[in-house]
Amino acid sequence: MGVASGDREKDFTALGISKQESGPLFKENFEILDRLLKEDQPTIHSHAGLIDGTDMRLIPKPVSSIPTMVTGFSNQSINWIARNGDGWLQYPRSIIQQAQLIKDYRALTEVHAPGDFKPFSQSLFINLLENPDEMPVPIPLGYSVGRNRLVDLLHQFQAIGVNHLAFVLYFSKRPGLRS
Predict the structure, then answer these.
(1) Share of the chain above pLDDT 70, in %
(2) What was the pLDDT predicted at 19?
(3) 129: how many CB neighbours lie within 10 A of its CB?
């Protein structure tokens, strides 16, 4: 389950909080959600009140723990994310920047949870071009690219340690297939 603090001013305005307040609130609420998902019938006292776990059940009951993955930085340090998240959902950056971020994240996860796999995931906006060999051209948070060069990009992301990549077709200009 991906969780975030919000990253747009409208997010904070809608919730009636400042961006500065969002970090501590995210941390507290992340811990509450994590306990609700991982503990059997927890009783939790928080700023929002009391959660009496004896009256709560996840239906259907999960077969295993539901992982919580931090989205972006959520106004937390990379150290906190590596220690507390079950994985990390990040936004696209250049291959070089993302490689360094993943390297730092992996080093910290190994410190906080030696041997545990904590995936690194990211989104990627794509506009898939007609010409399969069209080289990547940057667009906001991704690329306009031909399918063969997209496969090359996917290999690059895999090589730097991206475990899951979610395509976002927001900027896609090609029509979908019609049945």
Answers:
(1) 98
(2) 83
(3) 21
Task: Say yes or no to pLDDT of 17 above 90.
Answer: no
Kind and range of the H or E run holding 104: helix 95-112
Quick check: 75 and 23 in contact, CB under 8 A?
A: yes
pTM of the model: 0.87
CB distance 128 to 113 below 8 Å: no
Measured between alpha carbons, how far is 101 from 107 in angstroms, rounded to an integer?
A: 10
CB 82 within 8 A of CB 118: yes
Please give the Cα distance from 130 to 120 (Å, whole number): 30
Contact (Cβ atoms closer than 8 angstroms) between residue 155 and residue 138: no
Other beta carbons within 10 angstroms of residue 160's beta carbon come to 15
Whole-number Å distance between alpha carbons of 14 and 143:
31
Residue 135 DSSP code? P
Q: Which domains does the chain have, with CATH numbers?
A: 1-66 (no CATH), 77-179 (3.20.20.30)
